[in-house]
């Protein structure tokens, strides 16, 4: 499931929106938990250390679960992006090998007249793919 480069911006926007929604949910969970803790601390029957520890662990588990889902989504997006880029680079390499083979056996330009139109189409594919790749590299900071 390769994502074309133009769709990556849409994916990035949707991902950022989802991330913001999840952060808001976590923040609300934290506020709810704090309110419950404040009520219980104000009560004479306040929660014991074991109950507080249990609530803390529950909150930590929820946060970690959200983080795990987010990391999984990021990993899928990166793999899809890398697969898409890898496919385009391999396609360009294959086309250049085909063109080299055709040109290397030609004895004259007349020998090439039949494949000039085909070569132009292939070069247009290379140019399009390389433009997309360079655009991606220009607009995205390396992760490492």
From TrEMBL:
<dbReference type="GO" id="GO:0019915">
    <property type="term" value="P:lipid storage"/>
</dbReference>
<dbReference type="GO" id="GO:0005829">
    <property type="term" value="C:cytosol"/>
</dbReference>
<comment type="similarity">
    <text>Belongs to the perilipin family.</text>
</comment>
<dbReference type="GO" id="GO:0010890">
    <property type="term" value="P:positive regulation of triglyceride storage"/>
</dbReference>
<dbReference type="InterPro" id="IPR004279">
    <property type="entry name" value="Perilipin"/>
</dbReference>
<dbReference type="Pfam" id="PF03036">
    <property type="entry name" value="Perilipin"/>
</dbReference>
<protein>
    <submittedName>
        <fullName>PLIN3 protein</fullName>
    </submittedName>
</protein>
<dbReference type="GO" id="GO:0005811">
    <property type="term" value="C:lipid droplet"/>
</dbReference>
<keyword id="KW-0551">Lipid droplet</keyword>
């Amino acid at each position: 499931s390769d994502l074309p480069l133009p769709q990556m911006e849409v994916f990035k926007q949707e991902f950022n929106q989802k991330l913001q929604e999840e952060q808001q949910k976590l923040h609300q969970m934290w506020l709810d938990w704090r309110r419950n803790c404040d009520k219980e601390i104000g009560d004479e029957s306040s929660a014991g250390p074991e109950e507080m520890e249990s609530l803390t662990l529950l909150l930590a588990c929820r946060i970690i679960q959200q983080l795990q889902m987010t990391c999984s989504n990021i990993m899928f997006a990166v793999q899809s992006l890398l697969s898409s880029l890898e496919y385009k680079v391999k396609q360009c390499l294959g086309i250049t090998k085909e063109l080299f083979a055709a040109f290397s056996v030609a004895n004259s330009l007349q020998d090439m007249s039949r494949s000039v139109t085909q070569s132009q189409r292939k070069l247009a594919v290379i140019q399009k793919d390389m433009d997309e790749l360079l655009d991606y590299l220009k607009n995205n900071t390396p992760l490492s």
